[in-house]
Amino acid sequence: MNNAAHIQAPEPASPRLKPSDWLWRPWYAKLWWSAIPVWWIGMATSTRIAPLEAFYDSAAAGFLNLLFFPMTALMVLGLGYVQQWVAGFSSTGEGTPVSDEAVARTSKRMWEEHERGMEDLRAGTDIFDPRSGGLYIGNPLSLQHPSRFFKH
Fold first, then answer.
1. Band of the pLDDT at 24, cuts 50, 70, 90?
2. Which range among 1-15, 27-41, 69-83, 92-106 shows the weakest confidence by mean pLDDT?
3. How many CB atoms lie within 10 A of CB 91?
4. Kindly report the CA angle at 93 between 90 and 95, in degrees rounded to 5?
C-alpha cells in the first residue's frame, strides 16, 4: 500500500482580500462611487440653473451632501475590509486560553486589593477611627474629645 496516498496536503491559505474587493467590486459600491461625482457636478452647475439651485439649497440636499461625501463612502464601504483585517489578527495568535483557576485567582486578588483600598478609604474618612487623623483629633463627636468628659 502506498503511504503517499494517505498524506494530506496542507490547506491552502484563505485568499487575502484587497481593499478594492470591498471598496469597488460590489455593485452597490460601483453605484455609490459613480453617483458621487454626479452629485457634486450637479452642485457646481446649480449656480447657473435656478431649479437646481433651489434643490441644492434645501435641507434634503444637506443630508445628501453627507451621503455623497467621498469620505462617507470610504468609511462605510471600508468597514467590511477593516473587520476582516482585524479578524486576521485574532486568528494568528498562538496564546492559550486562560483557565478557570487563573480567572478565579485573579478575581480573588483584585477583590482583596479592592477591600484593602476601601478599608483605607474608611480609615481616612471615619470620624470615629483614630486613623482618620485630623477628622478624629479635636472632633467634638470623637470619644477622645475633652468636652465629652468635662461639662462647662
1. confident
2. 1-15
3. 7
4. 120
Alpha carbon distances (Å) from 101 to 43, 71, 104, 127, 144: 64, 48, 5, 40, 48
Which of 109, 107, 142 minimizes the C-alpha distance to 128? 142
User: Cell 452647475 sits at which residue?
Assistant: 45
What's at 87, amino acid-wise?
A
Grid cell, residue 132, equals 482618620
Q: What are phi and psi of 99, to 5 degrees?
A: -75, 165
Cell 483557565 sits on residue: 99
Angle between helix axes 27-45 and 70-92 (nearest 10 degrees) is: 150
pLDDT in tens, 67-84: 999 999 999 988 888 888
pLDDT at 127: 78
Residue 144 cell numbers, joined: 477622645
